[in-house]
Amino acid sequence: MLRSLVFALAATVATTVSAYAEPVRFAVTDIEGLEALQQEFGGFQEALEAETGLDIELIAVSSRTAAVEALNAGQVELVLTGPAEYVVMKELSDPRIVVAWQRPDYFAQIAVLADGPIRTIEDLNGKKIAFGSVGSTSQHLGPAQALADQGIVYGEDYEAVIISRNVAAEALIRGDIAAMGLNFGHLNSIREAFPDQAFAVVARGRDLPNDILVARKDIPEETFETIRDAFLEKGNELMGAVLQGEDNQKFKGGTFLTDIDDSEYDYVRSMYRTIGVDTFTAFVE
């Protein structure tokens, strides 16, 4: 009996050790290339290792589709992604939510020229509106939803065109388009890039759901809990490390939220439906 208990205890210890023995691989969907990933998240990698005792390895993925494939193939354990990407990942990989990464002032807007002919949202009827990257939460889906929330129907009440942000700003200034959809931070960048032009906002959406860190569905439970608890207990330290990255300044002033449910991303699902996408089994291209 004693011998059986000893073997059982040894097996338990071995299982626990093996769960921590392999590197926990971390990917980010909107950063291409390992060098860029290391520049943005090298400090966070070190901080997460220090707070968890785990070996954290940065893994570069070429696209959001590649991130899903890596999850399903067991090639990564953690993926940081945006809200629009998350709802598709949920369908394709059924990952577990670890923690949300809050982005202050993360909302979509419809911008026009301050001295232009568009003064109200009704003035956009029959006009041409530019959006950013297809499927982007804050440059495409969010602005379209901000209009839909006020009764302006995507693809019916106006013509939607996909144009990169700076090109769209130039088109707006020339009068080729009536308005452009973008987020708060992007509008500030446009104002800096075109200081001689004044812009106004005719529609603003609600704050968008947060970026989210997900874990592969079969990650060992103790590993999952160790990582989640680090964000819960050492959030300030981890956020400080995140903010070492230049692009990560979008998280400045934000926090980590561990009490997050999948239903909080139903607003994103409604955005997809607004642009005519009723299933979430593929990324919008």
From TrEMBL:
<comment type="similarity">
    <text>Belongs to the bacterial solute-binding protein SsuA/TauA family.</text>
</comment>
<dbReference type="Pfam" id="PF12974">
    <property type="entry name" value="Phosphonate-bd"/>
</dbReference>
<keyword id="KW-0732">Signal</keyword>
<protein>
    <submittedName>
        <fullName>PhnD/SsuA/transferrin family substrate-binding protein</fullName>
    </submittedName>
</protein>
<feature type="signal peptide">
    <location>
        <begin position="1"/>
        <end position="19"/>
    </location>
</feature>
<dbReference type="GO" id="GO:0042597">
    <property type="term" value="C:periplasmic space"/>
</dbReference>
